[in-house]
Design a protein that fits this description.
The protein has eleven helices and twelve strands. With about 400 residues, the protein is α+β, with helices and mostly antiparallel strands. A hairpin with a 4-residue loop joins strand 3 and strand 4. The two termini are about 25 Å apart. It binds alpha-D-galactopyranose. The site of alpha-D-galactopyranose has 12 residues, from helix 5.
Length: about 400
């Protein structure tokens, strides 16, 4: 995140070199000895929500908030993990994966998937320190999985690539943790590019990088709530999409996902769908169109148009997909009243977390102050507000030598 002059804005995180030194020092305190360091970023999604698990299109960017993992090999078959955020230690056995139902499952899950895929991992000592706020829709879980995956892969000799890593991390979340997420978060954490948005086709996994406009900023506003229903409702939405595909395939033989259904087909076959399933399908199909239109708008520097598509996306998520909540709606509503705002929408899975706002660069200080004040007055909570810069994907941290 870049620093913002307004008092309401969040302070910038430590520069990476300082944070790296801090994390190695923590490792030394907990375990003693040397370590290697890896980092993986969280993400914002500009448009294309709940489309990834429907083989659709998304447009996220990696943000400059990282999960850090420090690691050293151990001569055992166990992995010891210390979380600096939770101040907790966990140990798991590489040959007997057993979910513990807490934060460590993201790491254990990645280790289990790596081993299942044929990588032979040694035991390890790990320390995790994440700057990605948890439960805020910025994908702290994918950042943890990817950073842990990079660190574990570094301890073994076989070759690998970033797409495999993203896919393994997603499998860890689907099969070990039990959240049926799509590929977006892990893909962008692995493949983000500084100064660029990632336009990703979630079926072919082909990505195109789009430069971020220089005269506007992406501002993230955290509602500071996360409703307990989020995880359960996410899986329900996914099943509803699958039900839609199954019902629509009666009239559209051969379709395998909502990606294959046009708006015309959906309306023609509407009678085959219960109303709630129709609404879910409508969101996904229209959202895929919005992603393409938004990419075209960005390429032509049409920021008003991009902002309008963001607002339409929020409306569709609120009314058709029903994954918003009063706090997100309020945050979006307040943003739309501030001059210099092109568009605002919820970002991520929903039911709390953050909104993302496209704001003219010169309007950012006033935006930040106004939102902080009005949201606090209405909700009694101080929202965290950050100006985001699109960042580089995950990697090993190597201290500069000179
Ligand atoms: C979560 C999931 C992603 C994606 C978004 C919604 O972040 O992890 O795969 O489905 O929700 O777009």
């Amino acid at each position: 995140m870049t620093f913002n002059s307004s008092p309401a804005a969040q302070p910038a995180p430590l520069p990476a070199a300082a944070r790296a030194a801090e994390v190695s020092e923590l490792f030394r305190k907990v375990y003693g000895g040397q370590c290697r360091l890896f980092r993986a970023p969280g993400r914002i999604n500009l448009i294309g929500e709940h489309t990834d698990y429907n083989d659709g299109f998304v447009m996220p960017a990696a943000v400059d908030l990282d999960c850090w993992v420090a690691i050293a090999p151990a001569a055992t078959r166990t992995v010891e993990v210390h979380s600096a955020n939770f101040k907790q230690n966990r140990t798991f056995h590489l040959d007997q994966p057993q979910p513990l139902r807490d934060w460590s499952d993201y790491i254990q899950g990645v280790a289990a998937m790596l081993q299942q895929s044929g990588y032979r991992l040694p035991g390890a000592k790990m320390l995790v320190a994440s700057d990605v706020p948890m439960g805020s829709g910025l994908s702290s879980s994918a950042a943890l999985e990817v950073a842990a995956g990079l660190a574990l892969l570094d301890l073994q000799p076989a070759s690998w690539n970033r797409l495999q890593l993203a896919q393994l991390c997603r499998r860890a979340e689907n099969e070990f943790v039990g959240a049926r997420c799509g590929i977006m978060d892990q893909f962008v954490s692995c493949n983000g590019k500084a100064g660029h948005l990632v336009l990703l086709d979630c079926r072919s996994l082909e990505a195109r990088y789009l430069p971020v406009p220089e005269d506007a900023r992406w501002v993230i506003c955290n509602t500071m709530v996360k409703h307990a229903i989020a995880a359960g409702e996410y899986n329900v939405r996914r099943s509803q999409c699958e039900e839609g595909v199954s019902l629509l395939s009666g009239g559209l033989p051969g379709i395998t996902s909502l990606r294959d259904v046009s708006l015309e087909d959906l309306e023609r076959l509407r009678a085959a769908l219960p109303p709630v399933i129709h609404k879910r399908c409508l969101h996904v199909i229209t959202e895929n169109h919005r992603v393409h239109w938004a990419a075209a708008a960005l390429e032509q520097r049409l920021l008003q148009r991009f902002g309008h598509l963001m607002s339409e996306s929020h409306r569709s998520l609120r009314d058709d997909y029903e994954v918003s909540c009063p706090e997100l709606d309020l945050m979006v509503d307040l943003a739309n009243r501030v001059s210099g705002v092109y568009g605002a929408r919820m970002t991520g899975g929903g039911f709390g977390g953050c909104t993302v706002n496209l704001v003219a660069a010169e309007a950012v200080p006033e935006f930040t102050t106004k939102i902080a004040k009005t949201y606090q007055a209405r909700m009694g909570v101080v929202p965290e507000i950050r100006v985001s810069t699109a960042s580089e994907g995950a990697g090993r941290w190597r201290a500069a030598t000179s």
